[in-house]
Design goal:
CATH architecture of the largest domain in chain B: 3-Layer(aba) Sandwich
Number of domains of chain B: 2
Shape of chain B: globular
Number of domains of chain A: 3
Distance between the termini of chain A: 70 Å
Strand order of the largest sheet of chain B: 3-2-4-5-7-6-12
Structural class of chain A: alpha/beta
CATH superfamily of the largest domain in chain B: Thiamin diphosphate (ThDP)-binding fold, Pyr/PP domains
Keywords (chain B): Oxidoreductase, Thiamine pyrophosphate
CATH superfamily of the largest domain in chain A: Thiamin diphosphate (ThDP)-binding fold, Pyr/PP domains
Protein name (chain B): Alpha-ketoacid dehydrogenase subunit beta
Number of helices of chain A: 17
Largest sheet of chain B: 7 strands, mixed
InterPro entries (chain B): THDP-binding, Transketo_C/PFOR_II, Transketolase-like_Pyr-bd, Transketolase_C
Helix content of chain A: 40-55%
Order of helices and strands of chain B: EHEHEHEHHEHEHEEEEHEEHEHEHH
Largest interface: A-B, 48 and 53 residues
Order of helices and strands of chain A: HHHHHEHHHHEHEEEHEHEHHHHH
Strand content of chain A: 5-15%
Number of helices of chain B: 12
GO molecular function (chain B): magnesium ion binding; oxidoreductase activity
Pfam family, one (chain B): Transketolase_C
Number of strands of chain B: 14
CATH architecture of the largest domain in chain A: 3-Layer(aba) Sandwich
Mean pLDDT of chain A: 87
Number of strands of chain A: 7
Oligomer: heterodimer
CATH class of the largest domain in chain B: Alpha Beta
CATH class of the largest domain in chain A: Alpha Beta
Helix content of chain B: 25-40%
Structural class of chain B: alpha/beta
Mean pLDDT of chain B: 95
Chain lengths: ~450, ~350
């Protein structure tokens, strides 16, 4: 096989790619070669790596993998309210409550995520994109925000949505196929999740430009700190034009935005090395904004880093790119099979960095969590799962003519005619159920709706 | 009436000035729209009046312009985006088709995006490539958008204000070759024609001629020429390309029994096809002849020295009128020579087919 030698020597060639944590493979070919090396167990004998030209971007961390809290002066000041040993009793009580809440947010997120995966396996959802492994990145960042900030996320930010106030059932409407978005964006200041990779980065930027206009018009008091637009996206999105354009616009206009990139190492089957030859956070410098790399499985570090980035934006300091280094422990979606493209050893390695286990060890070590409290949190999580399940299975199919309801905000004569035409067609079935209906009736039965004749009075004359 | 004689470009600027004065959430954004006043000077003077943030020179990134406009609208603003030339809009296609057009539907009506996208459109000005496109069908095919094309200074002023006030996204086409057309503009029109309605710009009884934008003037010239020949042509300026005002077209065709549609864009899947199909559907029993289309050819827009052979002009439109009247022999294509057969077998295909 002529290609075999090249594949075999990829990462061990004379000019190995500049490597850093999570970026050991520079190209998919290198990644495949890496996997072969793993199989042959030669990784330990990897050749010396070329020294990077500049010191690698540090990955900020407060909890080590055993859950021991380490000082990090640059970050500690952002967590002054989270000292479980504070001398002042009120401060100590508040700190402990906040620390437990972070734990609860993560445990509930994981439990709800598992329940949604189960609902998909049982045929109640068509699809589900699990967040397993990314709980700390999502909870830590979302808990750094104010109510009047606005989140523009991708489709995996279930924990963010819950923290923002989304009802659990609203997380699954889209995946059950009964709606294309789950909640009123203005009720929780979080946009409908985005499927087109990276498109929301521009929306967050434009929203933040609106904040600046509001300051000009006297509608926002800059003295109270600017509301901040927050874009969530993944490592794959870093290759999208829209994300890079958002960096240009926000940096040029110094708009109050935080770009929160969850580098979970994989864009379906493509390793992050295919998106970038340098740590993602380093890209920020070229756009004229700070880039910060944080251990995305360390909820305290994520909270601190995001608080700092948000604070900078509030003070009219402009955008920040945060790269949260984490790992997608599950498949891209329930339709994906990651065993086809990544090896078990890598998953095993990241299992040892579990964000919840690490944080739980920390909480127990400082006496904030005991078995009783952990059991209470598990109960909250189980209740949430039950709530999600009950809400999910109760979601009825929307009525057929609701198809036409929101295509336009203002009256539209052509669509009204189409609606009347389709209502007329449905009405031709009389009291019978519509075509292809299984006879179950219910709110989705076309005959019910057609009889109401919504829109039947408009524009049907020839 | 407060009237002024304005060019179409100046009328657009007057419409923007008025919209920005009436509502401080109206913002103008695009490449070169601020300090320069736009490459066609449509936004001339607006930045001096309203400041650098409300009349925003943007980085050269069309997707960025539309995507940030979506974010601004999320926060309650009414952005008016300028895409500098028709051929540049495709860079922003995802933001227009997947984001802007769908947002109201996908949020169950919770998020309104009242964004107007102004696009200089069409050929006939001897421009370089990507500067003479007619992409209206691509947008008219996209649910969630409204599409309009103005042809005179009054509509430029009025329809632009209506578009900015509309809570739906509007693609607003400005025919480049008519930017310098002058006309009387009533700055406070009483009861103007709604945004989504066509206008009969010349009445007639024999043939209905449907067009919009840059070809409205040519169509009117053709109607005058036809009348010298004893043919009475009714000309409809469609104005709204989505939704199409089929009621106005159908009412005319029921009177004339004949319809010609002319547009600059290529024929295949152009709006002419939509109009011909709908006329056939709604006026079948009134038609004296099959609808005729006079359009650009199925090809990339040609170099300037050949655009005269691409764009419908007075003679081609009159030829279309003659065809719909049965005054000229219909074109019958010949079968192409079979490869390597060498035989000059040029039988009419329709004869073969029948």
């Amino acid at each position: 096989m002529p290609s075999e030698p090249a594949v075999r020597t990829g990462p061990t060639a004379a000019t190995p790619p500049k490597a850093y944590d999570g970026h050991r493979a520079a190209t998919p070919r290198d990644a495949r070669a890496d996997r072969k090396n793993v199989v042959r167990d030669v990784r330990k004998e990897a050749p010396p790596r070329q020294e990077p030209e500049a010191p690698a971007t540090p990955t900020l961390r407060l909890l080590d993998e055993q859950g021991a809290r380490r000082p990090e002066p640059g970050l500690d000041r952002w967590l002054a309210d989270l000292d479980p040993t504070a001398a002042d009793e009120a401060a100590r009580t508040a700190a402990r409550a906040t620390l437990v809440r972070l734990y609860e947010d993560m445990v509930v997120a994981r439990r709800v995520d598992a329940e949604a995966t189960a609902l998909q396996r049982q045929g109640e959802l068509a699809l589900w994109p699990p967040l397993l492994g990314q709980e700390a990145a999502q909870v830590g960042s979302a808990r750094a925000l104010r109510d009047d900030d606005f989140v523009f996320s991708s489709y995996r930010e279930h924990a963010v949505a819950r923290v923002r106030g989304a009802a659990l059932v609203d997380l699954v409407r889209v995946w059950r196929g009964v709606a294309v978005s789950g909640w009123d964006p203005y009720a929780i200041n979080m946009a409908s999740p985005q499927v087109i990779i990276g498109a929301q980065a521009l929306h967050a930027t434009g929203w933040a430009m609106g904040v600046q206009l509001d300051v000009d018009a006297g509608r926002v008091d800059a003295g109270a700190g600017l509301p901040v637009g927050v874009a969530y996206f993944g490592d794959g999105a870093m290759s999208q034009g829209d994300v890079n354009e958002a960096f240009v616009f926000s940096s040029t206009y110094r708009s109050p935005v935080v770009f929160f990139c969850q580098n979970n190492q994989w864009a379906i089957s493509e390793p992050v090395a295919l998106q970038s030859r340098v740590p993602l956070a380093e890209r920020a410098r070229g756009f004229g904004m700070p880039g910060v790399r944080v251990d995305g499985n360390d909820v305290l570090a994520v909270l601190a880093v995001t608080r700092a980035a948000v604070d900078r934006a509030r003070r009219d300091g402009g955008p920040t790119l945060v790269e949260a280094v984490t790992y997608r422990m599950g498949p891209h979606t329930t339709a994906d099979d990651p065993k086809r493209y990544r090896d078990a050893a890598e998953v095993e390695e990241w299992t040892g960095r579990d964000p919840i286990a690490r944080y739980e060890a920390y909480l127990r070590s400082v006496g904030v969590l005991d078995d009783a409290e952990a059991a209470r949190v598990r109960g909250v999580a189980d209740d949430a799962a039950a709530e999600l399940r009950a809400g999910c299975v109760a979601l009825a199919d929307p009525p057929p003519l609701s198809l036409f309801d929101h295509v336009y905000a203002e009256p539209h004569h052509a669509l009204e005619r189409e609606r009347a035409e389709y209502a007329h067609y449905l009405a031709s079935f009389g009291d019978d159920d519509g075509p292809g209906d299984d006879g179950a009736g219910g709110p989705g039965a076309p005959g019910d709706r057609a009889a109401s004749g919504t829109g039947a009075t408009t524009g049907v004359a020839r | 009436m407060t009237g002024q004689t304005l060019t179409l470009a100046k009328a657009l600027g007057a419409g923007l000035y008025r919209a920005m004065t009436d509502d401080d959430r109206v913002v103008v954004m695009g490449e070169d729209v601020g300090r320069l006043g736009g490459v066609y000077r449509v936004t001339d003077g607006l930045q001096a009046e309203f400041g650098e943030r409300r009349v925003l020179d943007t980085p050269l990134a069309e997707s960025g312009i539309i995507g940030t406009a979506v974010g601004l609208a999320y926060r309650g603003y009414r952005p008016v985006c300028e895409i500098q030339f028709d051929g540049f809009v495709f860079v922003a296609f995802d933001q227009i088709l997947s984001q802007l057009a769908k947002m109201h539907a996908r949020t169950g009506g919770k998020v309104r995006l009242p964004i107007t996208i102004r696009i200089p459109v069409g050929g006939g000005i001897g421009a370089a490539e990507h500067h003479s496109e007619s992409p209206e069908a691509l947008f008219a095919h996209t649910a969630g958008l409204r599409v309009v094309s103005v042809a005179n200074p009054q509509d430029a002023y009025t329809v632009l204000r209506q578009a900015v006030a509309c809570d739906d996204p509007v693609i607003f086409f400005e025919p480049k070759r008519r930017y310098h057309l002058k006309g009387e503009v009533d700055l406070d029109p009483v009861d103007p024609l709604p945004l989504d309605r066509a206008r009969v710009v010349r009445e007639g009884t024999d043939v209905t001629l449907v067009t919009w934008g840059g070809l409205v003037g040519t169509a009117l010239d053709a109607a005058v020429a036809a009348s010298d020949d004893g043919v009475s042509v009714e000309v409809i300026d469609l104005r709204s390309l989505s939704p199409i005002d089929h009621d106005t077209v159908a009412a005319s065709v029921r009177k004339t029994g004949r319809v010609v549609v002319t547009h600059e864009a290529p024929r295949q899947a152009g709006l002419g096809a939509e109009i011909a199909a709908t006329v056939t559907d709604r006026c079948f029993e009134y038609l004296e002849a099959a609808p005729v289309r006079v359009t650009g050819h199925g090809m990339p827009y040609p170099p300037a020295k050949l655009e005269g052979h691409y764009l419908p002009d007075l003679d081609r439109i009159l030829d279309g009128v003659d065809r719909v009247l049965g005054r000229v022999e219909p074109f019958v294509p010949t079968a192409p020579a079979a490869p390597r057969s060498g035989a000059a077998d040029a039988r009419p295909v329709e004869a073969v087919a029948r």
